[in-house]
Amino acid sequence: MIKLIAIREFKSLFLSPLAWAILTVTQIILCYQFLSQLESYMKVQSKLSTLENSPGITDLVVSPLLSGAAIILLLIVPLLTMRLISEEQKNQTITLLFSAPISMSQIILGKYFGVLGFLIILLIMIALMPLSLLFGTAIDLGQLAAALMGLFLVLASFAAAGVYMSTLTRHPAIAAVSNFGLLFFLWIINFAGMSTGSSANAQNTISLSYFSLLNHFEPLLRGVFSTTDIIYYLLFIALFLVLSVRRLEHLRLPH
Amino acid sequence: MGSELLIEVEQLSRHFSSSQSSDSLGYTTAVDDISFNLKRGEILGFLGPNGAGKSTTMKMLTGNLSPSHGSIKIAGIDLMDNPIEAKAMIGYLPDTPPLYKELSVDEYLSYCARLNRITKPKLQQAINTTKERCGLVDYGKRIINNLSKGYQQRVGIAQAIIHAPDIVILDEPTVGLDPIQMIAIRKLIKELGESHSVMLSSHILPEIQMVCDNVQIINQGRLVFNASIEQLNQQMQTYSIRMSCQKPIDLQLISDLAEVESVHLVDNNDNSIMVNCSQSDTTQEQDPFIRLSQQLIAIAEQDQLGLYEIYPKKQSLEDVFMSLTLDNSVEQVGGNTH
After folding, report:
1. What structural domains does chain B harbor?
2. What ipTM was assigned to the predicted interfaces of this complex?
């Protein structure tokens, strides 16, 4: 049943021009970023080769590219997730799912995996750019894999938060804005941690910035695969999916 | 099989919190203490004015709303304890058909069928049978959004019956249909009633009379009438005759007749009168109503009044409905003071 809903959701995404537009725009912006980064790398390449233990192309081109991708997708994922539940509530098609012999968690997981499928396509499209470097040079495939996995976890977290925001309202636009607000907030928590990091209350800021979504992404970009970071993302996803299921059940309760 | 209970509803209530609530409890009661049963092979009509609680009751029966109080059993399975098993036996058409308008009819129906546990090998057959039943055979490839309202409604009904559920719950199924489609849908409901139990809501009273075996009238969240269609027809039996003549009618002469309870002039211009037949005298073998009408005709002939119209004033379902719901609201006003 989860699979059925996921496939339906995935197909529905492609029935609207939104999915195609998102794929195109993301690809154009990241491609430009990739090419400009590659160009600046070419300029400094000769100097770098004289240095000992210098950063390679993976550090200078691939990591910034994927880090930039996370920021762009922070703006874009809310647009993908906004209509998941809210539009069904608005059009009252959610009745179809509520009346069918399926559980609330199956509905949420189905919807979530449908979006995840789309995000995987997006991720593959992005991964093609660093992989194209393989024609000319050697890149650190291990680091690339860790970074891609990090990006996937970041996107999966964005989507989980998006599903929850979509259950809260009947208006897709409001769902998108609230999700964007939440994600943006979880991003700038990190900024606050960095700017006041030197002061006496460093302890507080460290604990605050610990919640930053992107903070846990950086080690993965550098190729550091730490279980705490992975668990952070998995917990984040689980939290919002459980909240979504609860919220969906709440819709039927007397109030 | 015949007496198997498919729906058992006991003391069902549903409250909604509301700021403009009329009572001190802080909520509005949409459905108030309703109990009823539905047997297999029965068609139950659910009547009521707007806002009476019809849709709320149906939403609770299909698991779209949880009741505030009371229990619902679907074929012996408690809807609260085991919602998934219970829901598998129900097909539901809500007041707004839950259509994904960007899909084609075939895609949509196959999704609904799969959601309702129809396995892949049986899928195509289920879709074909349902399309045939709902008159959608030539519309499989069409996008739902481009269909007319009536055809969208048919797709909604198709969605409710595609998995051949034991219970079909239809919330105002004939809304937005043209008369020909209405007849087709009524025929379909009749057909469904042979193998499934059907519960349908409507505010079109003749429709309920035509289709249903049993009738429930609900007003302000309460059941005010729950009986078979025969009992309803009995309640609607007529005891008045309207008669129009070209010449003035002698009212005194008519009110002297044994069977007449009262008589009054309806319209001065065309000399129309309304004669109410007394109902007390039922011991004689001939119906007093028939005797009265014969006598009225005899009088008109004798006096050469130029009778041109005489007919029994049918008490319509509307009248019964109005009297039942109005009585209830009067009671309610009285009841609120305690």
Report:
1. 5-227 (3.40.50.300), 240-312 (3.30.70)
2. 0.84
